[in-house]
Amino acid sequence: MQIRRVSAEERLDTSMPLTAYAFAPSPEPVDREKWRDNLPYYQGHSTLMAEDGGRTLAVVTSIPMRQNVRGSVYPMAGIAGVASHPLARRQGHVRTLLTRLLGEMRDDGRPVSALYPFRPSFYHRFGYIGLPMPPTVSFAPADLAPLLRADLPGEVSWERLADGYDGYRDMREQLVARRHGCAILPDYAVARFRDEEQRWLVTARSGGELVGAVTYRITDHGGDLLADDLLTTGPLGRALLLRFFASHVDQVTRVSVRVDPDEAPEQWATDLGFVSEAKVAVPSFHAPMARILSLDALAGMAVGPGRVAVTVVDDLFISGEYLLDGASGKLEVTRGAGMAVPAATLTVAGLSGLVYGVLDPAELAFRDLGTVPDPAADQLRAMFPRQRPYVVAQF
Ligand SMILES: CC(C)(COP(=O)(O)OP(=O)(O)OC[C@H]1O[C@@H](n2cnc3c(N)ncnc32)[C@H](O)[C@@H]1OP(=O)(O)O)[C@@H](O)C(=O)NCCC(=O)NCCS
């Protein structure tokens, strides 16, 4: 068995057949022309494969993304296309490939990694921790009727996603710059959503500034308006987009839209009846997961005041002793044991949970994610206060 990188043209005969078998309905006639047409959408992906005698045994892919973690935007390794041949499973091939790929990504200057897991426990073995699943809110557009009379200082434009794509991308860039957890795919990878022409786009502006955008499609007259992520810079953008949905009262029965986990639909309109759902189930409904690949590279991140010695255990990439200091408001990372400071022992998943703001230090022991005596918990809690990430990773 050997491991090597998959070149662009080789994808047609190596990674694409395996991922098609793993993730698409089958058997289907092989449409090589369609696969070839899709090759540009993978041009910057980094794919490793394990092969034996010309047979592809397993593949893993990293997508060069960016992610906001506590206000700083880092190069991120988005992991995707993880699959092994049905006759070569449980033989350690994916473990070997993923370990190699994550090491390469860390050396390539990507201090964080995120993915959507088929089964969280599988990726937990690789140091990933679960992040919140953004909920989908469904409601009858009639319930937003009061917004139709609201005097809002802004306007919306409506077009096909293909026509307004640049504005939509600007909105995504704004969000990744300002919202903890938000990630963004490279341009070449998202071009497929623009090219597929399967979505409408509504964009909200005020004083010429972008304040909101959402993509959607409509199933039928009297059917559903299925929106993707409600992207806004604040209440005005949200109100402008919701008012647009309200104008569909005689056209669709329900509107559903994915929202920031910090959203409070109770405040969108008085008398709004809604269902807010976040479904997570193996293997098809995934909450995102993330991990840190380099702690040193996170130096400078905005943190609270605190000082703690941390020993990271059982990880190929960041195991070791660190002194973390947040006295300046920016994370300082020094290698080596701290003298006379509270100390904790953490797994990388535990540390990632603190940095991503999804765990309290007191929870770590209950989940086998570390040993954190109270004095160290106080310091870690002050440095990494809970902060819910919103992972918008779609186009
Ligand atoms: C999931 C899949 C990629 C695993 O590949 P694999 O080559 O069998 O994985 P490995 O043999 O390298 O196993 C790696 C580790 O995960 C464990 N593991 C494998 N399958 C697992 C599963 N379904 N659930 C939990 N753990 C699992 C193995 O025991 C091993 O643990 P260890 O190294 O700590 O002993 C493969 O079954 C597959 O292609 N499935 C269909 C596509 C899919 O779901 N891909 C994942 C998309 S996110």
Automatic annotation (TrEMBL):
GO molecular function: aminoglycoside N-acetyltransferase activity
GO biological process, one term: aminoglycoside antibiotic catabolic process
Domain N-acetyltransferase positions: 1-153
Short name of one Pfam family: Acetyltransf_9
SUPFAM superfamilies from the UniProt entry: Acyl-CoA N-acyltransferases (Nat), SCP-like
Protein name: N-acetyltransferase domain-containing protein
Gene source species: Rugosimonospora africana
UniProt lineage: Bacteria, Bacillati, Actinomycetota, Actinomycetes, Micromonosporales
